[in-house]
Amino acid sequence: MQFEHIPHPATTSDTDREAILANPGFGTHFTDHMVTIEYTDGQGWHDAKVEPRAPIMLDPAAAVLHYAQEIFEGLKAYRHEDGSIALFRPEENARRLNASADRLAMPHVPEELFVEAIRQLIAVDGKWVPGAEGSSLYLRPFMIATEAFLGVRPAKRYKFMVIAGPAGNYFKSGAPAVSIWISSYTRAAPGGTGAAKCGGNYAASLVPTREAFARGHDQVLFLDAVEHKWVEELGGMNLFFVFDDGRVITPPLTGTILPGITRASLIQLLREEGLNVSEEPYSIDQWRTDAQSGHLLETMACGTAAVVTPVGKVAGEDGEFTIGSGGPGQLTSKIREKLVGIQRGTIADTHGWVMPIG
């Protein structure tokens, strides 16, 4: 597919851009351009453009506004020491986007088109990829239903877009480990959209997340919807539990939690470290017991935005408990360094995960 390039009338100055890159934060600054590609039922994908970032024109009856047909992804571009730019497992993001599309009755975006859209954006906004340690260019591909109609059926018109912004650390507190609050709310139920990366899942998490923040915690923990007993995931991250006998547990993918790409990568890296990694249910009561006995050494949370982050404290209505010393554990630190090293090109990529892009 050919991409039309529409010139930007006034890109960000070098001085302003460098000031932003020096302290980008997360999710508050954006590059100058965006990619848009249209989809029409019976025609497929068409009218691919790289154009100045601007508001989207939508009809008030657009299906996304009324029936929430919307999905998205998140991945990062990294500046390597030689100045080149690379992505981490973007084809997995494309596959997950299409899995989400299946659940929300939306069209697939071909994997090669997904990656090419990102490549086209970085080709014009490559100067926005920071090089400082811990920084990256966060990429947000997403799809929305744009057909104007009122009626409960899948839309016939969609827009796929990619926007991007420089990113620093996800957590702002600077604490050595995060503190999480056990929510009484449910994020997803069996048969629902828990495994899809759609906005509705995150909207449902906002009230419990606000509650966690108000109590002084960094993240919210969701338990299962049926028994309210089994650990599932945080507001936007998967969990791993590290024990003193060399075992590591992560909750299984049963359709109610997001199949994280960082999660899948960690499973492989941990097994290469000689650890016995299993995907099995783990209850909140057992978590408390294992932490208090010392059998549980570490808990790590993982996701694209936060990479690998230690969990130091867990709190709920019936009290709280600390994991290990309450700070980063040895394995969490080691596996984070290895994953980040692969992403940034300082450690050899023996898995074919890194894709040079510019």
TrEMBL record:
Query: Would the keyword Amino-acid biosynthesis turn up in this protein's UniProt record?
Result: yes
Give the GO terms filed under biological process for this record: isoleucine biosynthetic process; L-leucine biosynthetic process; L-valine biosynthetic process
The molecular function terms in GO held by this entry are:
branched-chain-amino-acid transaminase activity
Cofactor section: pyridoxal 5'-phosphate
* Signal peptide positions (record): none
Pathway listed: Amino-acid biosynthesis; L-isoleucine biosynthesis; L-isoleucine from 2-oxobutanoate: step 4/4; Amino-acid biosynthesis; L-leucine biosynthesis; L-leucine from 3-methyl-2-oxobutanoate: step 4/4; Amino-acid biosynthesis; L-valine biosynthesis; L-valine from pyruvate: step 4/4
Residues annotated as carrying N6-(pyridoxal phosphate)lysine in the record are 197
What top-level class of enzyme does the UniProt entry assign?
transferase
Q: Work out whether the entry's keyword set contains Protein transport.
A: no
The UniProt family comment states:
Belongs to the class-IV pyridoxal-phosphate-dependent aminotransferase family.
Described by its record, this protein's role is as follows: Acts on leucine, isoleucine and valine.
> Any idea what this protein is called?
Branched-chain-amino-acid aminotransferase
Look up and give the organism this protein is from.
Answer: Qipengyuania soli
